[in-house]
Amino acid sequence: MYAQMIKTAGTGVKPREEMTPEEAAFQDKIDADIKIEPKDWMPDDYRATLIRQIGQHAHSEIVGQLPEGNWITRAPTLERKAILLAKVQDEAGHGLYLYCAAETLGVSRDELTEDLLSGRMKYSSIFNYPTLNWADIGAVGWLVDGAAIMNQVPLQRTSYGPYSRAMIRICKEESFHQRQGYDIMMKMAQGTEAQKKMAQDALNRFWYPSLMMFGPSDKESVHSAQSMAWKIKIDSNDELRQRFVDQTVPQAEYLGLSIPDDKLKWNEERGHYDFSEPDWTEFFNVLKGKGPCNTERMNDRKRAWEEGAWVRDGLMAHARKRAARKVAAE
User: Which secondary structure element, helix H or strand E, spans residue 37, and what is its range?
Assistant: First the structure.
């Protein structure tokens, strides 16, 4: 999953004539599509932007387990339970890949977690909505992971090497997540009237929160301009949101479900669907902690962090002993 609303440092794209020799050489590497590696020189703002983006991305993967993990014991069949368990396990792995990528920038995962628990870092607002029934698990896989894929595929080309390489594996696994969600929705849509009604209700509730995953329009954002100049960000929020709508509407039609948007229509001239904007007031309220499940999600994360302290302490003690034995043997 992907965290939106990444705020970057700086006041816009610095003109080349104002760059230091190091900054100019750095930008030349970016423009030549040469990956930036951990030991390479990089501007402080570039490093800070990456730490924030990768950190919030990692937090989203970890918190994203909570709405689905709640349904592992209540899945309708053993097969569905095994599939959902594998999916949640994947999300945990994605978080670990991303924490490792962030650590190459000189920040520890403990520091990142403390930033999350203190409110200095966010996670994707989509996970502050409840999963009320099994159809919601299908909607999360189809819509939420579908939006995540749309966000993440371009990140395979991002300029920072460790982040780019982590995204290659993550995107492959997210494709499985999206397909299993769509399969759930297909089974529900082809089932009884009650099941089809549940599928439509899940689509109704998750449609606009999924559109919000791309963040508000960044046409006027100087921060986005700098991120795109550094190739941290590849496409604009609006471009990604449009691609998602264009891809998802035919999928909904195949299911026999209706997108909950009276203004949705194909625009022949543009070659894209026209659609309604999400309620950005709701979006910002959720970011401020006023969503349906914000408190529950943070309480769960804090409890896991506190109750897992003894495991982390034990692992660190073991690592120190191994290191001491290695030094003594040399």
Answer: none
